[in-house]
Amino acid sequence: MYQTESDISDQTMREHVLGSFPAYMNQEDDSNNQRILNIIADMFIQHKNNLLSISKQRLLSTCSGQSLTDLAADYGINRLDDDDDFLRFEIRFQMMKNRTGITTNDVKQLIATLLNVTVNTFDIVGTDNPEEIEIINIPFSWNSGDKADVKRTILTNAIQSMLPPEYNLKDLKYSIESPSQLYVGVLAKTSAQVTVKEMA
Fold first, then answer.
1. Which domain of life is it from (predicted)?
2. Is the Cβ–Cβ distance between 145 and 84 less than 8 Å?
3. Which tens digit of pLDDT belongs to each residue from 138-147?
């Protein structure tokens, strides 16, 4: 959304317009001058709110529905289903291609940006092979609908493509929050089985 240091709230704009006449002119609330200024203030506020609404519908973090579909088309992405969050993920991936850093922290920051989560939500761990990594506790919130497998594949391929060429992604382990109390499901990339554990 459009950001400014100035206060552009409706009330502030109205007060600014109503106080625009010189002091020697009639400033009574029921005067004709104030009535005219109120009409002008209404017009300013309406146009300001329309512009902010247009701005909001063009921002990736706030647009939705057809506006988001149109934004995705600008990046050559076709919508899979009605999941706006996953479509935002796909757009962020297109925007971030070829921006991979060289350190683990760089890669972690890129993945966090891609998934729109904080860097302490998941971890990158090594394996016995020094050129192989695992990413654990990836928050996977798109595990629904008939496109869930496609979404997992896209996420896996996106993260692999962000890694330096010499590194291989062994596994992605997803953390899936269950609606029931204190349960977490973990899904590995190489297995279709979901293991549910009770948390202490």
1. Bacteria
2. no
3. 877 765 566 7
Q: How far apart are CA 34 and CA 17, in angstroms?
A: 9
> Is the pTM here over 0.90, yes or no?
no
d(CA 3, CA 95): 22
- Could you tell me if 84 and 68 are in contact, meaning their C-beta atoms sit under 8 angstroms apart? yes
- Whether the CB-CB separation of 132 and 170 falls below 8 Å is answered with yes
DSSP 8-state code for residue 120: G
Look up residue 63 and give its two tokens. 């647009």
- 100 CB-near residues (< 8 Å, 6+ apart): 106, 107, 110, 162, 163, 164
- 188 has which bridge partners? 173
Taking residue 122's Cβ as centre, other Cβ atoms within 10 Å add up to 20
* CB atoms inside a 10 Å sphere around CB 127: 12
How far is the first Cα of the chain from the last one, in angstroms, to the nearest whole number?
42
Grouping H, G, I as helix, E, B as strand and the rest as coil, residue 137 is: strand
Using CA atoms, how far apart are residues 88 and 72, in angstroms rounded to an integer?
Answer: 8
> To which residue do tokens 């890669």 refer?
107
Q: How much of the chain exceeds pLDDT 90, in percent?
A: 6
